[in-house]
Structure formats: C-alpha cells, structure tokens
Write a structure and sequence with these properties.
With 137 residues, this protein is α+β, with helices and mostly antiparallel strands. It has one domain (8-133): Hotdog Thioesterase (Thiol Ester Dehydrase, Chain A, Roll), CATH 3.10.129. Helix content is 23%, strand content 40%. It has helices at 8-15, 19-24, 56-72, and strands at residues 28-33, 36-42, 78-87, 95-105, 109-118, 123-133. The longest helix is centred in the middle third of the chain and has 17 residues, at 56-72. The model has no long low-confidence stretch (mean pLDDT 91).
C-alpha cells in the first residue's frame, strides 16, 4: 500500500515503474492523494496520429495512468477492470492534463471519473473506470 502521506517525489518514483506511460508517453504525476490524482504530458510528435491529432491511445494512456495513481494511494493494490472513454474535441494546446476523482471508494470496488483537458482548458475526453481491490482480512 502507498501511504496517503507519501511525499509526491516518492509517488513519482514508484509510478516511474509504469514505463510505457512514463517513458514512452512522458506521463508525469502532478498531484496524488487517496481517490484523487492529476497527471499530465507535453504533446510531442510521438503522440500524434496520421491526421496530426493526439492519438486516442495516448489520451487513454494518460487517463489510465491517473486512474492507477488515484486507485492506489492509501489503498490496497487496485487494478482497473473496466474503462469507458468518450472523446470530445481535438487538442489545440501543447499539454494534456488528466484529473481523476473517486466517485465511490468501497472495500472491493472503486468507481472513478477522469477528465482530460488541454492546457487551454478545452475538454478533450472523459473516462469512467471501475477498479477492483482484494480486501485483506
């Protein structure tokens, strides 16, 4: 379990182990608390699809990374079991920011919403997710 009072530097170090998100996509943890996370990445050519827009998979990766942080701070190991994403707009800014909040944080299930905006404040996507944690008695 990652303690709720863990300094942000320690949280970043731990989640650096998510190498696809951190190394391939450049995701960074900005804020981390029990049931809450903010993560971001700077948009590069690597994130773009053939049409010149940020690829849906890159947006999904950022949201999934933020969910993992929110799911696991102050809780037993939690993994995502269901995700749904809706895309609203093409990105116009130079950075994407995902803000995740636990709507219901139960003993075995957690339900989260993750809003993704660009640095101009334009809503890009919304992901809802269900996570599962095995309670230890």
């Amino acid at each position: 379990m990652i303690d709720e009072s863990c300094p942000i530097e320690e949280v970043r170090k731990l989640f650096a182990g998510d190498r696809f998100a951190t190394e391939a996509c450049g995701c960074r943890v900005v804020e981390a608390a029990r049931g809450h996370a903010v993560c971001e990445f700077d948009i590069t050519d690597t994130h773009l699809n053939a049409m010149g827009n940020v690829m849906g998979g890159a947006i999904f990766t950022l949201a999934d990374f933020a969910l993992a942080v929110a799911f696991n701070i102050g809780e037993e190991h939690t993994m995502g079991v269901s995700n749904s994403i809706q895309f609203f707009n093409a990105t116009r800014g130079s950075k994407l920011i995902a803000t995740c909040h636990a709507e219901k944080n139960g003993r075995n299930l957690v339900f989260c919403t993750c809003d993704i905006v660009d640095d101009l404040g334009i809503p890009i996507a919304k992901m809802t997710a269900t996570g599962f944690r095995r309670s230890h008695s």
